[in-house]
Design brief:
The chain is mainly β. It folds into four domains: about 100 residues, Carboxypeptidase-like, regulatory domain (Immunoglobulin-like); about 110 residues, Immunoglobulin-like; about 90 residues; about 100 residues, Sandwich (Immunoglobulin-like), CATH 2.60.40. The strands form eight sheets. Strands 1, 2, 3, 4, 5, 6, 7 and 8 form an eight-stranded mixed beta sheet that branches. A hairpin with a 7-residue loop joins β5 and β6.
Length: about 425
């Protein structure tokens, strides 16, 4: 046999070895990855994936903007470390290690979280479809709004008579997959175990026969209401926006009891010197009806952004009764072990600017009548002292001792007065 012919089997064997060495994922097939960005703290994200024995960051998905989903990118199957980075930034937000991706599979990473709270959840996109007339649903709670219940009912059904399809989905987690009848539903989301704590109401959502669907619950700008996205298996995102805002009334005026309606919703009824409870109001330009001591006060329409949180403060100066629409930031603090606190000035009978000190350290100064300070983050803990003083004279207005500020909580110290008698009410907003 010619020597050149004897080389052919050897060359073929070497070629096979070289080709197998090109598989950096350790398998012979391929897997598919994509990225969803529903993280309000990060406008554009990149996804990197590299094998455990490869220290080189290999970009797989680039420039996924907020509220969008990328197309799938194909990798060799195997085990990978997955990294998330801001687009164009070398530092890593999060590394998810040791993720095994089998041949011919599809996986979606859902990136979420406000600034300082970045996280991700993984969806496996190869779930077997259910029988005809049925649908499979998995809930991802990425809203930073606490633990949530999800109801899918007929439109007229009261939540008092309903059972959640998925109950108690903790923040930052996903539920098990539930199988239910396909069809048209009314979607409602509430706080866990509290059907009166409505966070989202969508009149109609359709679950197709044999559909496998991820229902992603996301944050709003106020921090408590939520929105929803549907993501069919290997499909596209669809948003179900929240059309509501939350608003409460606060009474700083000393002219008498206050009755307030906003957008046709009653928020105060004969109140004096208080901060009321939040009520949901349709967002947009909304009318205000206000009476103080039985006398009507003209108030212009107020503009409320969907998902926002507000306090409508009524107060009095030499010109008469005034109102201020104050934006409330009830989002989580930017780091664990922190609380947020501010002061709101309703001292109508005194009309002085205020300084708030926490453990003798001023955190807000010169807060005028009818205004509120920005929120300041402080360490959580017990035995705090809060002091409110007149900014101009340093005269003490209120001192509170042995105060507990809980982690991840939001507080407003509301200042009001009856004549020269000053009160400070520490309100836990979240």
């Amino acid at each position: 046999m010619p020597s050149c012919l004897r080389l052919y089997p050897i060359l073929a064997a070497l070629s096979a070895l070289l080709l197998s060495g090109c598989d950096d994922g350790g398998g012979s097939g391929h897997t598919n990855l994509r990225l969803v960005n529903v993280s309000p703290g990060y406008d554009s994200l990149d996804l990197y994936a590299n094998t455990a024995d490869d220290d080189t960051d290999r970009q797989r998905v680039a420039g996924v903007t907020y509220q969008t989903v990328s197309s799938y990118t194909q990798l060799e199957s195997g085990t990978y470390n997955v990294k998330f980075k801001r687009s164009g930034v070398t530092s890593t937000l999060l590394t998810v290690s040791g993720r095994a991706f089998a041949d011919d599979t599809h996986h979606t990473f859902v990136a979420f979280g406000s600034a300082g709270h970045f996280a991700s959840l993984q969806i496996d996109d190869d779930v077997a479809p259910p029988d005809s007339g049925r649908a499979k649903v998995q809930v991802l709670n990425v809203a930073e709004a606490g633990s949530l219940d999800v109801y899918l009912t007929e439109s007229s059904v009261s939540l008092d008579d309903a059972t959640p399809v998925v109950a108690g989905v903790a923040a930052g987690t996903s539920s098990a997959v539930s199988t239910i009848d396909s069809g048209d539903y009314r979607l409602r989301v509430t706080g866990a175990s509290d059907s009166d704590d409505l966070r989202l109401d969508v009149p109609n959502i359709t679950l197709d026969s044999r559909q496998v669907l991820s229902l992603i619950l996301t944050a709003t700008q106020g921090g408590v209401l939520v929105e929803a996205w549907t993501l069919p298996q290997q499909g596209s995102l669809t948003k179900f926006a929240n059309t509501k805002a939350r608003l409460r009334g606060a009474v700083g005026t000393t002219a008498g009891p206050v009755v307030m309606r906003v957008g046709g919703v009653g928020v105060l009824n004969g109140a004096v010197g208080v901060v009321g409870n939040y009520a949901q109001v349709e967002a947009g330009s909304v009318p205000v009806t206000l009476t103080v001591n039985g006398v009507a006060v003209a108030v212009p329409n107020q503009t409320l952004v969907a998902g926002g949180e507000y306090t409508l403060l009524t107060w009095t100066n030499a010109s008469g009764t005034q109102t201020t629409l104050i934006g409330d930031d009830n989002r989580l603090p930017t780091a664990s072990g922190k609380a947020k606190i501010r002061v709101m000035n309703g001292l109508s009978s005194l009309d002085v600017p205020l300084t708030l000190a926490v453990n003798f350290s001023p955190i807000a100064e010169g807060i005028a009548l009818g205004q509120a300070s920005a929120f300041t983050e402080v360490e959580d803990g017990t035995d705090y002292q809060l002091d409110v003083t007149n900014t101009d004279t340093a005269a003490n207005m209120v001192t509170k001792t042995s105060v507990t500020l809980q982690s991840a909580a939001v507080y407003t110290l509301f200042m009001s007065a009856n004549g020269t008698t000053v009160s400070g009410t520490l309100r836990k907003d979240r």
